[in-house]
Design goal:
151 residues, His-Me finger endonuclease fold, two-stranded antiparallel ribbon, 6 helices
Length: 151
């Protein structure tokens, strides 16, 4: 048995190692971690159910393209949903961590400490993100969008 999972590169022992096989051919591929086997199964099933007959690429090619895509540099545009996700994560932080994050974003100390609760700190955080990533507009659907992304 290999000591490390060839997919997740984590250590394996008898408790988390499984024998992986190809569901199309039934042939054993390798011993991998239980987590990698679960991930691989989900990816293969999704590809088989939703992509395989629609595109001319096979799964390894799609995964190579996916890895290449994920390694691309990100844009400087903040997606409206991304803004909401960041604010939601921020709201779950402890008060001291929120204050630190606000100051790291450029909030003045008196501005941070004038916030009386998490809701006010979250509002300030949202406004700082908007300032750092461009002003936001509300379009006709009521969805916030970055002004720069609509130009």
């Amino acid at each position: 048995m290999p000591k490390h999972c060839p997919i997740l590169k984590c250590e394996m022992d008898n408790n988390n190692a499984v024998v992986d096989h190809d569901h199309r051919t039934g042939m054993i591929r390798c011993v991998i971690s239980r987590e990698a086997n679960s991930l691989l199964g989900k990816v293969e099933n999704f590809f088989q159910n939703f992509c395989q007959n629609k595109f001319s690429l096979d799964l390894p090619d799609v995964l190579e393209h996916l890895a290449s895509y994920l390694r691309q540099p990100q844009t400087d545009y903040l997606h409206p949903v991304g803004l909401n996700q960041l604010v939601s994560r921020f709201a779950r932080l402890k008060a001291e961590d929120q204050k630190f994050a606000l100051q790291a974003l450029g909030a003045k100390k008196d501005e941070v400490f004038s916030c009386n609760n998490a809701r006010e700190r979250s509002k300030l955080y949202r406004n700082l993100l908007k300032e750092n990533y461009g002003k936001t507009n509300t379009d006709t659907t009521g969805v916030e969008s970055s002004e720069r992304s609509t130009q």
